[in-house]
Amino acid sequence: MIKRPKGTQDIIPGVIEKWHFIEEQIKKICSEFGYQEIRTPIFEYTELFQRGVGESTDIVNKEMYTFWDKGNRSITLRPEGTASVCRAYVENKLHGSPKPLKLYYLGPMFRYENTQAGRYRQFHQFGCEVLGSDDPLVDAEVISLVWELFRRLSLKYLEVHINSVGCQTCRAEYRKLLQVFLEERRNKLCRDCQSRFERNPMRILDCKNTNCQSLTTDAPTTLQNLCEECQEHFNRVLALLTASNIPYKINPRMVRGLDYYQKTAFEIMAEGIGAQSAICGGGRYDRLVEEIGGPSTPGIGFAVGIERIIALLENQNTNIATTKEIKVLVAAIGENPKIEGFKLLTQLRQCGISALMDLTGRGLKGQMKYADREKIRYVLILGDDELAEDVVTVKDMILGEQEKIPMDSIIKYMRNEIDKTSCSD
Ligand code: AMP
User: Fold this and answer.
1) Best of 53, 63, 112, 276 to mutate for ligand 1, by most ligand atoms within 8 A of CB?
2) What is the pTM of this model?
């Protein structure tokens, strides 16, 4: 048997309802906060991610699904959403629209990672990007959007970790300080960190290796070395989070993996889903749009992993109400009744009444059982007797009552019944 590729998942009926619920909540909240959806291609030219994510990141170095297409172009399945959104912003000249532009996306991302619980090779992200404002209000707004989403999904035990990684100016200074600190510990770091020393020394602070962590406990932090502007920005963001009742924890070691972050960086961590506890990561990237050829434009965004939300909902036993949509089963018995039944089914559907017909040749008893199992309230029975009388027998599965309704008024009757009972369903 051919199996699905490692690190991918089938989202099958029974689980998809959770996805739909989360996606609906996302769309609703984004529209309430004034964010518009953007859909970009699932593959892009590789260069976009090399420039937009950064050559020194794990994503670009180790994790991209890159291939040559038949026209000899290097193509990459998108490993994240921000670079594509910024490319689309520049390419479609969205910088002409009123500022800031508030966008969101939802879709699959691809990273060739070591798979484990909560870490996949194809996974799904919901993300927001706000382009065109460097006001700390925007930092607070994006965090409050995702915080509110998690509140509506009834997720518990979450913690916002926040840091400022400084700007081009103060970070350059900080990088030197950090390298001086790391120099004498360099040989004791893990192999990955040794190669990060030149390329991206800040990532060493983020290393999960416990030895690297203890070697860097006393390392200088960006927070101790912020310039005045970055410090003021950070203070404002924290004040706004406090004003909106969002609990946060300052985490000076959280530097995030991507090269383009500046000033605010944040993650939201969850308890109870194992090692992969980050469910949201984001930050400000005031130079990214310029980096990929656009006008200088400040930006900030985040991405949330949908699989991790689902894991958390399951871990916290949060029930998601999945309403059964089907109201009517047309139970036609016999050849002629089936033709009349199919006609009735079509009319019901044209009137927007959700209805099914048995497609496997079950008898009346079997169809009743089916309706019961699927929680379909009304069964419309149509046999040779009903045809002769030009009626339909309507059985209400909840009340256990049945009555004959003339064929020419059945649609009107069903509409009334459904309106009457839909509140009590
Ligand atoms: P990142 O783009 O790495 O900042 O990730 C943002 C969020 O996407 C994380 O907080 C996770 O929730 C989710 N995520 C990232 N990588 C994976 C993965 N390989 N599998 C599942 N979820 C992921």
Assistant:
1) 276
2) 0.90
